[in-house]
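Hey team,

Filing this mostly as a record. A colleague (T.K.) asked me to run one chain through the structure pipeline before their review meeting, and I want the input and output archived in the tracker in case anyone asks later how it was produced. No errors, nothing strange. Just documentation.

Input sequence:
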Amino acid sequence: MSTEETRRDDSLGAEIPRLEPWLVVMLIAIAPMLAALALPRELVPHLTTIAGMLFVVGAAMLFVQERRRGARRGVRDAGRGIPDAGRGMRDAG
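Output structure:
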């Protein structure tokens, strides 16, 4: 794949809204809490634990996605002479 095709694919991907996988997990985490409203009290701690675990997994997925996106962006921008956000402007040149 050429550089131009990669750049075009990146720009198209940025314009198309999509439902992120981590967001799906976070939304699913709401279901056990809603179920806890209708089920007996003995199940509430278990459902709360499940919802909490799903929330933590969703947050971890978001963290990993953003780190990967930042790493890809850093590699892609390094070839174009765009300074890394972690370095000062004096170090970029």
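Quick notes for T.K.: The chain has a mean pLDDT of 79. The longest helix spans residues 44-78.
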